[in-house]
Amino acid sequence: MTVVFVPQEGGGQTGFLTISSNDPDRPVVTIEVAGVGSSVGPGEEIPGPIKVDLNLAEGNQGLTTTTGVRPGSQVTLQLFAEDFPEVTGYGVRVVYDESMLSYALGNFTPSDFIAGATPLDTGIEGLVDAGVVSLSGSAASGSGFLGDISFDVGNGFADSTFVIITEIGLSLSSGSLQTYPVRITATLLESSPADFDGDGSVGFTDFLIFAIAFNSNDTKCDLDGDGSVGFSDFLLFALAFGK
Ligand SMILES: [Ca+2]
Ligand SMILES: [Ca+2]
Ligand SMILES: [Ca+2]
Fold it and tell me: Residues 43-52, buried b or exposed e (16+ Cβ, 10 A)?
């Protein structure tokens, strides 16, 4: 039986798990449970044997903050093994703010780091467990690309949000399970309103879009919201340029 702990606030939490059954000797069993909540926000990083990278180019560029995130977009984290012992499987527990992001089952796409391993993912709102297990006994060790995990950005997204790996589990070839409590954060930031093409920065292509919209009533380029694209918008655009 798996018990999932999703605290509404950080810090230590305790409670009781009561199991009622038709066992005549012990019809009710009460178990004390405790856990530590880690909030979905900035905090001290606790590294582990998996790294995240928000730069989708091949390889680990170590990008842990990305801009240009907007409602309706999708954010993908690349996962990388670092000096794994010989493993037949691995998993990560990822928490996120469900008012801003959502995870659809199947949005974890493993690499062939462990040949022929079977992907598994499960989750509830705000939490996903994803990983692979080798049913054939194939194993792998060392460092390398593990796969992609993607989140959909909802209409509730504004300003910034975080995706945090809170636990890593490795299934060792010896048969034992090694777990690591970690805190590995990917920070997702909204883009500037002047990033008209949504590529994450305000650059020359945005200037071209602005130039075309100048003197029109294009709402996207009406940065001060006065109903038309004019000189005051140009000043706001100039302030954002290059950021
Ligand atoms: Ca990369
Ligand atoms: Ca841009
Ligand atoms: Ca305006």
Answer: eeeeebbbbb
What are the chain's domains?
A: 1-37 (no CATH), 50-190 (2.60.40.680), 204-240 (no CATH)
- Per-residue pLDDT tens over the stretch 196-233: 987 778 999 999 999 999 999 999 999 999 999 999 99
**pTM, whole model, 2 decimals?**
0.72
Ligand 3 centre from 193 Cα, in Å?
Answer: 13
Mark 136-171 as b/e (b = at least 16 C-beta within 10 Å): eeebbeeeebbbebebebeeebeebbbbbbbbbbbb
Nearest bound ligand to the CA of residue 55: 1
CA of 150 to the centre of ligand 1 (A): 14
Q: Are residues 164 and 183 in contact, defined by beta-carbon separation less than 8 angstroms?
A: yes
Give helix 231-240 / helix 204-213 axis angle, nearest 10°.
170
Residue-wise pLDDT for 23-78, tens only, equals 888 888 888 877 666 555 667 899 999 999 999 999 999 999 988 888 999 999 99
Ligand of minimum distance to the alpha carbon of 78: 1
Beta strands 65-69 and 177-190 are: parallel
Query: Do residues 95 and 126 lie in contact, with contact meaning Cβ atoms separated by under 8 Å?
Result: yes
Distance 166 CA to ligand 2 centre (A): 33
